[in-house]
């Protein structure tokens, strides 16, 4: 009762912080401001959280050299951006009799991307397709994280310089006519 009277006296709210403890813990605070700050903290945490995406790239057993190079270049870009990649070879009709050709394509992809990717799931046959999952190496992820922090620092510096420039503009007296 005393706490409730004190909260009303200061135009604040009495909020129960820990109802399970004995005695229950309460705080006197502005509840609207408290909820706003909690939402702001959650938003910041979500912004810093990195969620990965699973990208996919489809090959054929009899893929041409140019098409192969083009697709592996895209896989490389996906891995460097921090995404995992599911690579699969689709078989049609009589190609099912020559699954070793598809296996050779997947082995070649794994070998070509070995310096930036590790095999998360070994090649395996699933119905009419054979697939594998590649994940970026820890070294690639370190470089990506370093680039992100450098970018954030650069943006922060630019923002500070912009604010500083606005303050100096306001401080200048306007010319008299």
What is this structure, in a nutshell?
This protein has helices spanning 2-9, 31-48, 65-80, 99-112, 138-171; strands at residues 13-18, 25-29, 54-59, 84-90, 117-126, 129-136. With 177 residues, the chain is of the alpha+beta class.
Task: Describe the overall structure.
Among the domains are: about 1-35, Translation initiation factor 3 (IF-3), N-terminal domain (Ubiquitin-like (UB roll), Roll); about 55-140, 2-Layer Sandwich (Translation Initiation Factor IF3). It has five helices and six strands. The chain has a four-stranded mixed β-sheet with strand order 3-4-6-5. The chain has a two-stranded antiparallel ribbon with strand order 1-2. With about 180 residues, the chain is an alpha+beta fold.
- Give me the strand/helix succession: HEEHEHEHEEH
Overall body shape: elongated
| Tally of separate helices | 5
Task: Please state roughly what percent of the residues sit in beta strands, choosing from under 5%, 5-15%, 15-25%, 25-35%, 35-45% or over 45%.
Answer: 15-25%
Question: What's the β-strand tally?
Answer: 6
- Gyration radius (Cα, Å) is 29 Å
Low-confidence stretches: none
Mean pLDDT: 86
* Top-tier CATH class of the domain at 54-139: Alpha Beta
The CA-CA distance between the termini, in Å, is 66 Å
CATH superfamily of the domain at 54-139: Translation initiation factor 3 (IF-3), C-terminal domain
Give the spatial strand order of the biggest sheet: 3-4-6-5
Portion of residues in helices?
40-55%
Structural class: alpha+beta
Main sheet attributes: strand count, strand direction, barrel closure? 4 strands, mixed
**What fold name stands as the CATH topology of the domain at 54-139?**
Translation Initiation Factor IF3
CATH architecture of the domain at 54-139: 2-Layer Sandwich
């Amino acid at each position: 009762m005393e706490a409730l009277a004190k909260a009303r006296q200061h135009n604040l709210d009495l909020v129960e912080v820990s109802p399970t403890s004995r005695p229950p813990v309460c705080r006197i605070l502005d509840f609207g401001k408290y909820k706003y700050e909690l939402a702001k903290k959650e938003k910041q945490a979500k912004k810093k959280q990195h969620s990965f995406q699973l990208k996919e790239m489809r090959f054929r057993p009899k893929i041409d050299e140019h098409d192969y190079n083009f697709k592996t270049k895209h896989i490389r870009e996906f891995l460097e951006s921090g995404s995992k990649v599911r690579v699969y070879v689709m078989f049609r009709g009589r190609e099912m009799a020559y699954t070793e050709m598809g296996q050779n394509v997947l082995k070649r992809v794994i070998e070509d991307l070995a310096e930036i990717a590790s095999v998360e799931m070994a090649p395996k046959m699933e119905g009419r397709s054979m697939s594998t999952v590649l994940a970026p190496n820890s070294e690639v992820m370190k470089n990506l994280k370093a680039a992100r922090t450098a970018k954030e620092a650069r943006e922060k510096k630019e923002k500070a310089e912009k604010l500083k420039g606005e303050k100096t503009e306001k401080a200048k007296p306007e010319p008299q006519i």
